[in-house]
Write a structure and sequence with these properties.
Blueprint lengths: L4 E4 L24 H10 L3 E7 L1 H4 L5 H17 L4 E7 L22 H10 L7 E4 L2 H10 L3 E5 L15 E3 L2 H10 L2
Parallel strand pairs: 1-2, 1-4, 2-3, 4-5, 5-6
Helix pairs in contact: 1-6
């Protein structure tokens, strides 16, 4: 039977966005993010990270660098009681300099490919799920994939024009979003 998921963008939602993050020693969970993810997990949501990683296509870091950081993030989340059910990334960007990744694709948000793949691979009910992002592209990907609820967080920065109207709600951070979501009957 399909289960509901909480799709979470990575940079700017669960960790501080420093731009092209690729080293674990530079990774920093945002305040309240681990607790918020634990609460979602305990409420029965499959935690699914969906993240654009154009730094790979741009040659700023490698797929191996990304995977090493992801292994450490997964371990930290597991230790905190919020194990991810899946972590999906898009390494592509049409303006990239690394040939194999310098393409337009269906997985790079705002396209819905990562979410659709996760739903297929993990047996998820998209309509019963939610997505939390920090950019208009996250909201658009969620809507295109048929995700039931779409939320955005500011996490210390302003949202781009049109982002708020594309979402079902905007919050200061993931903790505030999760508190509101889980407080609803």
């Amino acid at each position: 039977m399909p289960r509901r998921a909480a799709f979470l963008d990575r940079d700017g939602v669960i960790n501080r966005d420093i731009g092209y993050l690729h080293r674990w020693e530079d990774f920093e969970f945002l305040p309240g993010a681990l607790d918020a993810m634990r609460r979602l997990h305990e409420a029965g949501y499959a935690l699914v990270i969906v993240t654009n990683q154009s730094g790979i296509a741009r040659g700023y870091y490698t797929e191996d660098d990304y995977q090493a950081l992801t292994r450490e993030m997964r371990r930290a989340m597991e230790r905190a009681g919020c194990p991810p059910a899946g972590i999906f990334h898009c390494p592509h960007h049409p303006g990239g300099s690394v040939g194999a990744y310098a393409i337009a694709c269906e997985c790079r948000k705002p396209q819905p490919g990562m979410l659709l793949r996760a739903a297929r691979d993990l047996n998820l009910d998209l309509a019963a799920s939610l997505i939390v992002g920090d950019k208009l592209a996250d909201a658009q990907a969620g809507r295109s994939a048929g995700v039931g609820r779409v939320y955005l967080v500011r996490s210390g920065h302003e949202l781009e024009d049109g982002a708020e109207v594309a979402s079902d709600g905007t919050f200061d951070d993931l903790a505030g979003c999760v508190h509101q979501v889980l407080s609803r009957p």
